[in-house]
Amino acid sequence: MNRSYDDPKRIYISVKQKFWISHVAAGLWMLFSIGVSMPWLQDFARFVTLPAAILIIAGISYIPGYMNAFMIVSLLLDRQPPLPEGSPEWPVTVLIACHNEERGIRTTLAYLAEQEYAGPMKVIVIDNNSSDLTTERAKAAGRELGLDLLVIEEKTPGKNHALNTALNLVETDLMITLDADTLLHKLAVKHIVSRMESAPPDICAVAGAVLVRNSRHNFWAKLQEWDYFLGIASIKRLQGMFQGTLVAQGAFSLYKTDAVRAVEGWPDAIGEDIVLTWKFLARRWRVYFEPLAVAFTDVPESFRHLVRQRSRWARGMIEALKMLKPWNQPSIYAKYLTGCNLLMPYLDLVYTFCWLPGLVLAFFGIFWIVGPATLLVLPLTFIQNFILYRYQSQVFRSLNLRIRKNLFGFIAYVLLYQMVMSPVSVYGYVQEALQRKRIWK
After folding, report:
1. pLDDT tens digits, residue range 7-43?
2. Cα–chain-centroid distance for residue 53?
3. How many C-beta atoms lie closer than 10 Å to residue 441's C-beta?
4. Largest Cα span, the chain
5. Are 165 and 62 in contact (CB under 8 A)?
6. Cα separation, 312 vs 272, whole angstroms
7. Is 92-302 assigned to CATH 3.40.50.2000?
8. Prediction pTM value
9. CATH 3.90.550.10 in the chain, residues?
10. Hey, what long-range contacts does 365-372 have (CB within 8 A, 24 or more apart)?
11. Which of 80, 75, 29, 42 has its CA nearest to residue 293?
């Protein structure tokens, strides 16, 4: 009998089997939800017609419940392969695209200088049309820290232009993209390169785990800490398990240089990293996620900047869907994972224009939209977050990190976060439909 790689007593379950087991479990949960919700559906249909009631309740309860159940079962079945022993020595180039980063670029470079990585590491800082002293501060930091550093300037605004200019100068087989406000754990480069070193030949990129650095500052930062720590991490783990991480994010990811060149570099898109990753998947290449390769980034601290960032993410997803259709993806896993994004505008619209007004009505005793069946999603949400919390706690302990105490942020994240994010995403969809001007930062 086949056994898993990490426990000789555990029965081996293939990725394909995990995929279908998770779907069967999610389907059974959705059937249970439909059965429980029939009285609610019939009552609601008297006010809005049966087709409209089904459309609304499916967006509020059935589909989110299915997705959450699929994720929970998948995460319970997931067994992350251990990293190989020893330290990789592959030469790597780190690309840092900057726009007006004079205040923080030295700190970012200092954390790079402290990496416990045995191989040669070259750093290219690309000053993308800055109006401050980014170039001068980066050069001075490079000399002081003893880095193999090259600073170049790219006058054409746009992160894709900055990265593509640097791509022409990369001479190593592997390269890392790093945001100028992102700090790497001292083992981050070692772990992310180790994952690539042990991966099959068709793995072309590895996404790192990006967490929040400035979570102590205010309410909005505290809220986002749990989104990065639990929400985004759970999605990355799910996608990585099925060998199709959908975003090798520009904030911190490792790429095979030839793979990026083969798809002609970063595209002219507001979600350039999303489109780049989907192009990889369209070529039957796979993308991994390494939870032990940890980086810490600054998140928006004002509601205005949060709206700008998340609406940009929503626009990036729509751009990717327009450029690369999910049904054209060669892998069944990539079809499903990218196809889920087709449902996101519908779910966000229903949540914004039906669930939120329904929540207000429920306070007045009118349960047309928000009723008892909607509570079926909550247990899955808490179970999912508990599973991820336990897993992330293990990751942190292995890296000698501590989870910050942020109970208020956690409660706000579970109860309020979607109330903010769905309307913001809808705003992003509208911006993309109207082809509003793109803003990098």
Report:
1. 445 677 888 999 999 999 999 999 988 988 888 888 8
2. 32
3. 13
4. 73
5. no
6. 11
7. no
8. 0.89
9. 92-302
10. 367/40, 368/43, 368/44, 368/47, 368/48, 369/44, 369/56, 369/60, 370/60, 371/37, 371/40, 371/44, 372/40
11. 80
